[in-house]
User: Fold Zinc/iron-chelating domain-containing protein from Vibrio superstes NBRC 103154.
Amino acid sequence: MIITDTGVPEEHIARDKWGGETMLRLDDGWCSAVDRETLMCTIYENRPWICREFEMGSYECRNEWQPRD
Assistant:
């Protein structure tokens, strides 16, 4: 959930029917803000609070935002 305003661009936000905001996942499960070639966040300076808990590219980050088999 996006719970603070960090400036996440609108094109990376998904809203549920109750107005809750999360990072948008693409049809294949990837976070829309992750560059698949570098595995780096394309909105790093404006990433949501929860993403700030993980070091960019760390196991926890990759595990959270990559598709699950």
Observations:
- Residues 10-65 form one domain.
- The chain has a mean pLDDT of 85.
